From TrEMBL, chains A, B:
Keyword Magnesium among UniProt keywords: yes
SUPFAM superfamilies assigned: HAD-like (SSF56784)
Reactions catalysed: O-phospho-D-serine + H2O = D-serine + phosphate; O-phospho-L-serine + H2O = L-serine + phosphate
EC nos: 3.1.3.3
Pathway: Amino-acid biosynthesis; L-serine biosynthesis; L-serine from 3-phospho-D-glycerate: step 3/3
Protein name per its UniProtKB record: phosphoserine phosphatase
UniProt cross-references to InterPro entries, sorted A to Z: HAD-like_SerB, HAD-like_sf, HAD_sf
Top-level class of the enzyme under EC nomenclature: hydrolase
Cofactor section: Mg(2+)
Sorted UniProt keywords: Amino-acid biosynthesis, Hydrolase, Magnesium, Metal-binding, Serine biosynthesis, Signal
């Protein structure tokens, strides 16, 4: 009887022991499996997907000749046209137009300004005719005097009430599923991911954490100046109508230098506004990745490149390949465009 | 014999099982023990230490009324006089003087500039007489035309060859051991820690990761402008002699807004240059922590406050307590000042 007891105990503890070992091993195994197979599900098999996987493997495998220490694994992503859509016009422009229309009754002085007039009557040609400078002026002037909290509330309110004109989706669901998977894939390999966008830094910060898991302090963008001043008995950050920084073209490497302070290992963009960012990243010695998202899918998204007013991609396509940049063909390389909508 | 075998197996597997349990439990236990008891070793028991521990416990314990979600746990630290020393003069000024002396033979035009002249002959009174503006001018003009890599190499070289005039330590070992422990304590409770310094952002970024474990993209500081341009056949970030941002006084909340984009929960400083940063942080509703390091230790460090040219602390001491800010008395609250030197 005594022996029987001990045998039972032996079997029991063996089971528990084996189970506890299994448990430990399983955790590690499943982690490994996820890292190797479960990422990038919306990317079709092919040269593009393989080149991304190979790059990450080579830069994150210890003893690899191309190994990069965790602390230096920096990946920078453009936003408009790279992480989310940008057609038929930049989404922040849609926000600014809606804001100006809503606020116009309180600002009779706006009616004398041609840029504001174009916004109020929805004259897109007139707006685009003013070029980048006109758009920046619109955003700058319309938001002057707002506190950081007021601006955040205005953007949040707009996101929850507005829908994209073609898809009917909320704008923060016009994000690209394959890019969400790429962000996750990189983070799982200890890359820090940053947004480096021509768009407004404060506009992006309102929703980027929820949409992409990218916190405000990993967002670089264009900005107007701000002051710290008393307002209604409280000290506030208040936006002022003075340009601070344009984070586009050669501004992107400068923005990276100012905000990140480390040279990236991976740069991802979609337009010639990203050329300098990819150039800055990939000219460095050592293995580097430049990735260009080419909008080729007129059925599921939009097809545009060298002739487009928005997101023009010309130099990237002609010079990119000779620089070793990988061009992602959306129609061919992606089996899904958008994530499942929360509305559905 | 068979029974004996099984008994042995029983005992063996029990041992292994117990050991494996122990191993798992120990890891968790020791983690918990470290979190609760082993941090802040260089802080003497007392009201200051208790108030820090209580604050962190209340803001990081789920179901606490003061619980703050991980993503919002932002702590900002001044650098000069808070994380490292600043006497007998700002360490970056020591760097700039050494740099100007070394480079002067290549810049005959400097001899006509009184600020450069004061630096070259080591006339500290003349230098300080120019005030903050003079010092910024010195740093700006002396570094114009340098690439980001050249600047980093110059700072690294200076750090490895220079010693503090009073202690003989390398400057990057003039950091405060109790503050290193505070940074660790906060990080272990999922606070993200940032430097928000009046000092130069690029100067700080060279050594802050090694000294404090704070990566370049968590450093906010003063800066001059930079361009992205061709230099010797390579595209480079080049510093230009134009002021970009002064991250001091009311500039600190603006710097936090621009770089971090979230309001801090904890702000730590030591001078009136940090007043606005602590004000901005602690005026928010909800539990917030403002901490002021008061240099009271003339034996182990330096004793100075309201009359000091460098690190003047006057308003903080008079207004701080009524705002609920905690004043750290270095002589009383810290049992150690500096970490063990790597030289020793």
């Amino acid at each position: 009887m005594k022996n029987y007891h001990i045998n039972l105990l032996a079997i029991l503890s063996l089971f528990v022991f084996i189970f506890s070992c299994q448990f430990t091993t399983n955790t590690k195994d499943s982690e490994t499996i996820i890292l190797e197979y479960n990422f990038l599900e919306s990317w079709n098999e092919g040269a593009t997907k393989t080149s991304i996987q190979d790059f990450v493997k080579r830069t994150t495998t210890e003893n690899s000749a191309d190994f990069i220490p965790e602390k230096d694994r920096i990946a920078v992503f453009d936003n408009d046209g790279t992480l989310w859509g940008e057609q038929p016009y930049y989404f922040q422009l849609a926000y600014a137009i809606d804001f100006v229309k809503k606020e116009a009754p309180n600002h009779p002085e706006w009616s004398k300004d041609p840029i504001f007039q174009a916004a109020i009557v929805g004259d897109m040609k007139g707006l685009m005719g003013g070029g980048e400078k006109g758009l920046i002026e619109l955003v700058m002037k319309s938001h002057a005097g707002m506190t950081e909290d007021q601006f955040e509330a205005a953007v949040r309110n707009w996101l929850s009430t507005s829908r994209h004109p073609d898809t009917g989706r909320p704008y923060d669901e016009m994000i690209f599923q394959p890019m969400l998977e790429l962000l996750d894939f990189l983070r799982a390999h200890d890359y820090k991911v940053f947004i480096v966008s021509g768009g407004g830094i404060d506009f992006l910060r309102v929703w980027a954490e929820e949409a992409y898991g990218i916190p405000p302090y990993h967002v670089v963008g264009s900005s107007i100046k701000a002051t710290y001043q008393e307002l209604n008995g409280k000290m506030e950050i208040v936006k002022i109508p003075e340009l601070n920084f344009i984070d586009d073209k050669s501004g992107k490497p400068v923005g990276i230098h100012q905000h990140i302070g480390k040279k990236p290992i991976i740069a991802v963009g979609n337009s010639d506004g990203d050329f300098e960012m990819l150039e800055y990243t990939t000219q460095l010695p050592g293995l580097r990745l430049g990735l260009l998202i080419h909008h080729t899918d007129s059925v599921r998204e939009y097809a545009y490149d060298s002739l487009s007013h928005i997101g023009r991609l010309r130099i990237g396509l002609t010079e990119g390949p000779s620089r070793g940049w990988v061009v992602v063909d959306m129609a061919k390389d992606w089996n899904t465009i958008y994530p499942i909508s929360k509305d559905q």
